[in-house]
Known about the structure:
Blueprint: E1 2-6, E2 15-19, E3 23-28, E4 34-40, E5 43-44, H1 53-62, E6 66-68, E7 74-76, E8 79-82, E9 85-88, E10 98-100, E11 110-114, E12 118-125, E13 135-144, E14 147-156, E15 162-164, E16 167-169, E17 171-173, E18 180-191, E19 197-209, E20 216-220, E21 225-229, E22 233-240, E23 244-248, E24 255-261, H2 267-270, E25 275-277, E26 282-294
Antiparallel strand pairs: 1-2, 2-3, 3-4, 4-5, 6-16, 7-10, 8-9, 11-12, 12-13, 13-14, 14-26, 15-25, 17-24, 18-19, 18-20, 18-21, 20-23, 21-22, 22-26, 23-24
Amino acid sequence: MTHHFISHPNPKLSHYVFESAKASYKVFPHLGGSVLDWVHDGTQIMTPFPLSEEGIAYYEKFYPSSLLFPFPNRLEDGTFRHEDISYTLPINDPDGNNAIHGCVSNCSFSVSSVTDTQIHLDYDHNPNGSFPFAFKMEVSYAFSEKGMTLSFHVINLGNKSFPFGLGWHPYFTMEDKHSEILFASNKTYHTNGRMIPTDAKDIVRNSITLNNKELDTAFNLLQPEVRLKTKEYDLSITTQGLEYLQLFIPDDRKSIAIEPMTCIANSFNNGVGKQILHPQSSFKCSLHLQLEHGNT
């Protein structure tokens, strides 16, 4: 593989391209360190991303491949308590009056190193209104012709502990009448009209046929593998340290968001998957994506 950098008048759209004879990926350091526009042998694996203001608007509305920290999904009323102190975060889901998807998805990451197959990015967060605790987030992507590995490392830089959750929000192309997702789960989470979980339901789930299926649903993961089977390709996602899954199909039904997470929505308040990062402590997790069949 090789890599090169493409500058754009809008820094958010400046990006690195990693490509081989069959595969290409784009990494946008100033768009939350996201990886977008994965193409393999002419097949669009991730949803296409236009290099335009329209593309930025799409990213800010739908969060494609956004890194979700310090919480994925929604935080009810943007409020939580930690160590007997109440905190209020900005409401960026006005329809539900929630905070959503943390505070790093639109931040600029620094590139600490880059090779023809890997890129390492860093973001240092100083306490502010978006999240009142200091942390450092390190993200690494390692690319091959048939997939990629994402590694996350978060460090508490402050002198106070804080609650956290982490997730990733990629969209993968599919035709729903020809697609199926396979994963092992025994629990799903019902939500109210604001998409806040209200209760859990025991289930036996090994697969979902996506034909006309409405999904914006969280599950626990009993095994660390999720498989997406489409007409064009089969994709395996192996997780380490992310024990929940959110599935979402947009209205156009041309893609599915497969969102591995360490917790469910509103975990700061309901405690499901919530973790605590103590001062100077760190957390690591990773994902491996591999194309297994189809045009590979």
